[in-house]
Known about the structure:
Blueprint: H1 2-9, E1 14-15, E2 33-34, H2 36-39, H3 43-55, E3 75-77, E4 101-102, E5 105-106, H4 115-129, H5 136-161, H6 188-202, H7 218-238, H8 259-274, H9 291-297, E6 308-312, H10 323-327, E7 341-343, H11 345-348, H12 386-390, E8 391-392, E9 397-398, E10 401-402, E11 408-411, E12 416-417, E13 425-426, E14 435-436, E15 456-457, E16 478-482, H13 483-496, H14 500-513, H15 527-537, H16 543-550, H17 554-557, H18 565-568, E17 584-591, E18 601-606, H19 628-633
Parallel strand pairs: 1-2, 11-17
Antiparallel strand pairs: 3-7, 4-5, 6-16, 8-15, 9-10, 11-12, 13-14, 17-18
Amino acid sequence: MKNKFIIAIATLFVFSLGCKSDSDYLDIKPTQVLSPELAFSDPTQVLSILADLYNRQYDYPRLTEWVTFGDFNESFYSENGQYNNYHGNSTWGFRGYRGPDVGGRPTYFWTPWDYTYIRELNLFMERCATATALDATTKASYIAEARFLRASYYLTLTQYYGGVPIILNSLEFDGTDVTSLQYPRAKESEMYDFVIKEAEELKLLLPANSNTKARATKGAALAMESRAALYAASIAKYGATTPSVSLSGGEVGIPAGMANAYYTTALKAAEEIISGSAGAYSLYKKQPGNLSENFAAIFYDKTQNNEVIWVDDYALKFKRHGFTQVNQPRFGAEEEEGGRINPSLNLVQSFEKLDNTFAPLATNDATGDYVYYTNQQDIFAGRDARLGGTVIIPGSSFKARPVDIWAGVQLANGTVISGGERGAQKVLPGKTVPEQVVGFDGPINGIGNTAQTGFYIRKYQDPAIGSGQRGVGSAVWLVRYRYAEILLNAAEAAFELGQSSVAAGYMNQVRARAGLVVPLTGGDITFDRIVHERRVEFAFEGQYFFDLKRFRIAHQVFDGVALSKTDLLSNLSKATKRSTQPYALLPYKYYAPGSPNNGKWIYKVDLSNIVTASDNWQLGNYYSEIEPDILTRNPKLVKQPNQ
């Protein structure tokens, strides 16, 4: 069913609703323009229209826009055109994007306000209901799927803006009275209530089929409900810490007294999935002998992957992306292209040790001397296996090719010999023949598309041969909901409801999959633990951004103050640990003939000289700005707080 659905996208026709094919993805272009009546007279074409509506769901991050994966100092943008993100004005705009002021206003990045999409969903449901070419069962199924897409998009809008107008039918302008098209903003709580209500109704209408990934199912509806209720609950509870981030009409902000009811709903929805009533979902555990690769495979293995609940799917013949092409390790890669996202040391050191403790990576011993490693990977040994499934570390491999990450040769007297190009060669002291002194994957400060932080991204990279080649691309799917989120949603909700032992049980399932086999007890579960677990499990999946917002901790994490090395390496377990600049961890080959450490590896913590700004999250950043032209067209809308 999934493959038929993707193929249906390729038959898409433009019709008067304004739906159009996505020219970035599709190989087959529409050749006809059909009236609504004609379009809805053919079941195949109706399916094509529905497929297009699926295709237009808004996602953050997006596999087609690699920069959406690298913000909030979880990584460094290794591309010359992106270096402006790290210097100049560091105040983030209302959409959370750090960038310089342009014309006196912050640079913006996220723009999900799209009521054309909502109108077309409403029109689809209305026209589907009267389509004589569809049987009753198909009609009900398609309308339920469109309702799910509409609720999902309203949830997205709520995550960005708080309350927005809820419009559930298509609106027509009569040519005279524009006020009939102007709706006020709903309360933020009403937005979440709407999504929860829709999910409760849709779970009875959608199939309980865990094998369906690209279309709406009972599992997807319950996952949406669990996420929505959890977000509403945390905003109600933690929004009290930022009272100025609210509006008197409730369009932004949720009363604290509503928190427990939302937590209860979140836990109930999660436990419905856990119970199996929505289908046979479970954690992905196909490669128990290699837990890091097992974690990476969640995002590229499409065969009997019971962890994945709902995705934006891809197929090479019809819809593909170039995420691997622009982010794979460059050395030996197809067309020697890639390397744009370099995960930061800030993120890498957050993966805890297997004894459930937190510690920076050991670069120096108690005397201040370097720690010497025989193998590059040794510094990362004994840590959460999700690290290797999220980040490509020095000494590891991708597509059966070793990465070649090292910044230079360190002499015994402290001198560093390096080069300004990948794989540069120099003559070392006591030798006469040039030899390699820097990795073919870098890092080289300021040389784009190399591992400037000492790391490449691993999550969402496609190991298939040819996936990094132009004209071929990747069909790796974008995961929107997965079972690990359901377990961690249940853990968080249970903790907030005073059920710490229950929370520990759910969290331990996720942690054991990552090799953290020493169980946490109820007494170990704290707010910091909840936030940390989500950060390392969902790195580069967009969750960190929304967690920072709903927990109201972003202004503490990004306080505008430069991050010293001491700051970087301390308080690793704290949810509010400061992270205003992205740091690097650079490997060097030690050269001291006659020394037992000759040829071993040392590591240095480094901050690129490109990074001159310190990110400063303003209270106004918690909600996206409603653009002035939108406010002008609809005077019933109220501005955001601090706008």
